[in-house]
Amino acid sequence: MTHRIDMCPRFESAFEILGKRWTGLIIRVMLSGPQRFKDIAKNIPHLSDRVLTGRLKELEADGIVIRHVYPETPVRIEYELTEKGRDLKHVMDAVQAWASDWIEMDEPEEPKGK
Amino acid sequence: MTHRIDMCPRFESAFEILGKRWTGLIIRVMLSGPQRFKDIAKNIPHLSDRVLTGRLKELEADGIVIRHVYPETPVRIEYELTEKGRDLKHVMDAVQAWASDWIEMDEPEEPKGK
DNA sequence: TATTATACTTACATAAAGTTAGTTACATTA
DNA sequence: TAATGTAACTAACTTTATGTAAGTATAATA
């Protein structure tokens, strides 16, 4: 009816994943290799256990992450990126490049005067 | 204390912007040139006015978008990406490439059997 | 049996997003 | 002059997502 830009549904799908809080940081941390739950949590300061659990499940459902269970004592569970997940490195690199060019960091991490 | 990966604060900042629902799609639509409020809304189906207003303000505050007011009748307001915003094209291209490689679209946009 | 550690769950509070309706400003029309 | 129409919001309310704190499951060990 009206002429609208043809928004690629794959692009929309991609942003349903990336456009959620924490997802980008989780993937970035996992790009350095398989990680245990607590290691991911440790590397992403304000991320809660509850949300990390949810995100890992979503990413697993999306085929971006695999969950490995090692029946040791205590049980060891590792999360690893699939090829699909590792290929997001190109996206993360682009974000990093943009951030390096454009984000200033004069103020400390949590500015008070807000 | 513990050894954690040094999460680049610029990267975190970038994902505070990109890691919000709709932001990626809004920027993608704006990459095709200055747009009026209603045009952006028209090109992003399920995005509400309320959220679009908020996102445009955030993006303006982040220096990614400029708001131009043309005192015509009725008043015409156009939103345009700044250089900082246009430079996000590289990120969007990487997302598009990843999505083209990895996102399947067998099922219709809103699968029923979920 | 009690203790310890990891990887979750659950319950509840707050913040963000969705939905619908209304407002403002101005020119055109009746 | 009053009614109408349009774009760009804004307000009120509901629903969903996230934050926070505490609790659970499992298995080896003391």
TrEMBL record, chains A, B:
Sorted UniProt keywords: DNA-binding, Transcription, Transcription regulation
Protein name as catalogued: HxlR family transcriptional regulator
Domain HTH hxlR-type: start-end pairs: 8-107
InterPro entries: HTH_HxlR, WH-like_DNA-bd_sf, WH_DNA-bd_sf
Gene3D superfamilies given in the database record: Winged helix-like DNA-binding domain superfamily/Winged helix DNA-binding domain (1.10.10.10)
Pfam families reported in the protein's UniProt record: HxlR (PF01638)
Keyword match Transcription regulation: yes
Originating organism: Scopulibacillus darangshiensis
SUPFAM superfamilies named in the record: Winged helix' DNA-binding domain (SSF46785)
GO molecular function annotation: DNA binding
